[in-house]
Amino acid sequence: MAGAAEQPSIEVSAMSEIQVVPDEVILYLAAHTRDKHLSIAKRDNDEVTTAVMEVFPRYQIPDEDIKITDLDLTPDYGQFNSRSETPIAYDFVRSMRIRLTNFDHIEPLLSDVIQAGLNDVKRIHFRVSNQRKYQFEARKLAMTYAREKAVHLTELTNMKLGSPLRIEEGIESNWDAGGFGGTMVRMESDRPQGDQQQIQPEKTKLMLVALQKDKTKDEKSARILAAPGQITISAQVTVKFAMTPE
């Protein structure tokens, strides 16, 4: 009605976080080969990939958890200031994605694929597979916090909290649960930093993951990689409630 007083209301925001132990890990691997002949670069890559793929059945990894994700062929024409008209070499990269649910297999699996010729571990990513369940819990908790805050503020003004008039949810950004983030395993080159474009795959060395001959050290390394910690699942809501006199 025109001229009617606006209904008293209160708007509050609340955020909740719950900690969840991840139940799966995604390994992002890649085989890099390089040669001045394209056919040789591809042949070498096929051999490495075949040897690596033969490792996975030993760990009883289902076929649906093994996926070739990318195939990249890049001709190298040399440095910017001395580029050749024809490629001086070809870089052939085949990337793959492996899902594991047994964290005890991480270290031995990585050791085996490196022995098979793999030369790039891009990322190790611990995740929560059932994000939907935990997202509901976080959202419910955020709504509880919002109502508690609204009730308290309303009582301080000698009013009574009414029904919700509007509910807004913040954009979910639970990257670890949804398939992002994770622990990085980096590669380090023996070559100078200024010559990165000419890095030879066979001259790279893997950091963090290493074969251990000593049993005690081996078990300690396995425990470190098999301890993913916890992932934070969060939710944020903004709720507008009506207020009425007591």
TrEMBL record:
Gene3D superfamilies: Protein of unknown function (DUF541), domain 1 (3.30.110.170), Protein of unknown function (DUF541), domain 2 (3.30.70.2970). Signal peptide: none annotated. The lineage of its organism: Bacteria, Pseudomonadati, Planctomycetota, Planctomycetia, Planctomycetales. This is 26 kDa periplasmic immunogenic protein. It comes from the Bacteria. It holds the Pfam family SIMPL. InterPro entries: 26kDa_periplasmic_antigen, SIMPL/DUF541.
